């Protein structure tokens, strides 16, 4: 360990890595002052240079494992992403006795239990503030500031790319592909944006939040997951007409029979605060018994916001390690041996209101048939819009909002409706979140 301070080795010089270098270049003195000890970024591992940052006189290695094996390094920052090389790198860093800071949500969601246990056994720190919601300090809030609360629920917009795309589609009528390309250019999207679009990235983050909030092991397969690729511009328009916005939400709630864990596009009342969280902003609403409800909001992706979270972890560690050679805060909020699994509530048992959109033949009796099938499944309709047919069409678009029912009821009714000869195409289904219990 460096005498009188900590030396940091950074692995990965992409969007977030270059942000970390830029923050150390700009705020090196401030960081040292606030840390109360030397905290220097001395060694960078990157396969290639990044023209967006000046590494100065720091040592640069093309083999990132040189950083992990550098005896002068006390803290390894993993910013390469993915779950294969990154996993080996973090494991090797811990085996070498180095503390680790990572922004890797996929790695934490898939291998976090093992990595946390490894770090704990060795008395090492493993910090991951930047893994969830970019620059918003939500991990610190759950693990430290709200440590005396029992948490009942978390509802969040936790993918910046997805929120940026939905916002631009809704406000500017832009195409999905066009906005996604811009999100990539701005450094919001993952290297492979499939994870942003299909909900996987948000599911990884929800897994981490659920572990910290409820003291459960990280379970990558826990959340029911749907992406923003289910949302068509026509649904955004109909939702607006009904007084709603469509947001991609991650929801984790403790219920009497287990955990309700879901990631999916959701209609939210346009009057709610979370409906006005637009663009790359994320928001995390936490329902806790002592503090009540709090909402944290801020940039959920991007170079400097995410690097801000990485550097916050580094500063925290620098402070702690300059005084005692261990991290006093349990990695997952409680010791890993105390984590207890809870059953995950099946989507069919979860209740909410639903948005349904379908295209049907414009002839007498069709609407009566649809409402009868919904009624047979115990579903009543709260609102209904029917678009008159275009001059050259014999079909109409029908949009309905139902009352609060189970996923199983909707599944059964939609299967019955899908069998109608009057139906053209499929039935679009989206969940509605009223926040009434929140
Ligand atoms: N691709 C992620 C997002 C980056 O858009 O939210 C931050 O985790």
Word description of this protein:
The chain is an alpha/beta fold and 438 residues long. The protein has three domains: 3-135 and 303-334, NAD(P)-binding Rossmann-like Domain (Rossmann fold, 3-Layer(aba) Sandwich); 139-299, 2-Layer Sandwich (Dihydrodipicolinate Reductase, domain 2), CATH 3.30.360.10; 350-432, Alpha-Beta Plaits, CATH 3.30.70.260. Helices cover 35% and strands 26% of the residues. The protein is built from 13 helices and 17 strands. The protein has helices at residues 15-35, 65-68, 85-95, 105-122, 138-145, 160-172, 176-185, 194-197, 200-214, 233-241, 303-321, 366-376, 407-418; strands at residues 5-11, 38-45, 59-61, 75-78, 99-102, 126-127, 151-157, 224-225, 244-255, 258-269, 281-288, 292-299, 351-361, 381-387, 395-402, 405-406, 423-432. Strands 7, 8, 9, 10, 11, 12, 13, 14, 15, 16 and 17 form an eleven-stranded mixed β-sheet that branches. Strand 4 (75-78), helix 3 and strand 5 (99-102) form a beta-alpha-beta unit. Helix 1 (15-35) runs parallel beside helix 11 (303-321) and helix 6 crosses helix 7 (176-185). The relative contact order is 0.14. The mean pLDDT is 95. The structure holds L-homoserine (HSE). The site of L-homoserine has 11 residues, from helix 6.
């Amino acid at each position: 360990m460096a005498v009188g301070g900590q030396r940091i080795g950074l692995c990965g010089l992409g969007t977030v890595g270059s942000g970390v270098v830029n923050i150390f270049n700009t705020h090196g003195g401030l960081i040292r002052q606030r840390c109360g000890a030397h905290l220097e970024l001395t060694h960078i591992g990157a396969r290639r240079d990044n023209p967006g940052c000046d590494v100065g006189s720091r040592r640069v290695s093309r083999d990132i494992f040189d950083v992990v094996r550098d005896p002068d390094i006390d803290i390894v920052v993993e910013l390469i992403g993915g779950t294969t090389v990154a996993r080996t790198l973090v494991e090797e860093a811990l085996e070498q006795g180095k503390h680790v800071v990572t922004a890797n949500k996929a790695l934490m969601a898939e291998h976090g239990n093992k990595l946390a246990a490894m770090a704990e056994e060795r008395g090492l720190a493993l910090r991951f503030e930047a893994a969830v919601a970019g620059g918003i300090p939500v991990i610190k809030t759950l693990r430290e500031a709200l440590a005396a609360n029992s948490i009942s629920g978390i509802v969040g917009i936790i993918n910046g790319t997805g929120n940026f795309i939905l916002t631009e589609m809704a406000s500017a009528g832009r195409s999905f592909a066009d906005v996604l390309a811009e999100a990539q250019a701005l450094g919001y999207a993952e290297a492979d944006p499939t994870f942003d679009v299909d909900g996987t990235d948000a599911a990884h983050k929800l897994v981490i939040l659920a572990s910290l909030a409820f003291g459960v092991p990280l379970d990558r397969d826990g959340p029911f997951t749907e992406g923003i690729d289910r949302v068509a511009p026509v649904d955004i328009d109909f939702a607006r007409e009904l007084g709603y916005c469509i947001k991609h939400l991650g929801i984790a709630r403790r219920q009497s029979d287990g955990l309700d864990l879901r990631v999916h596009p959701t209609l939210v009342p346009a009057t709610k605060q979370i409906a006005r969280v637009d663009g790359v902003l994320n928001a995390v609403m936490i329902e806790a018994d002592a503090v009540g409800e709090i909402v944290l909001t801020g940039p959920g992706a991007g170079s400097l916001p995410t690097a801000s979270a990485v550097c916050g972890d580094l500063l925290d560690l620098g402070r702690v390690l300059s005084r005692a050679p261990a991290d006093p805060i349990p990695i997952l909020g409680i010791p890993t041996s105390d984590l207890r699994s809870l059953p995950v509530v099946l989507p069919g048992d979860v209740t909410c209101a639903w948005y349904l959109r379908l295209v049907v033949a414009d002839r007498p009796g069709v609407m009566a048939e649809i409402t009868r099938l919904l009624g047979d499944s115990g579903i009543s309709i709260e609102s209904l819009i029917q678009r008159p047919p275009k001059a050259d069409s014999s079909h109409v678009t029908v949009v309905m909002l139902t009352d609060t029912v189970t996923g199983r009821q909707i599944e059964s009714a939609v299967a019955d409706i899908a069998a109608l000869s009057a139906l053209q195409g499929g039935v679009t289904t989206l969940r509605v979140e009223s926040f009434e219990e929140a």
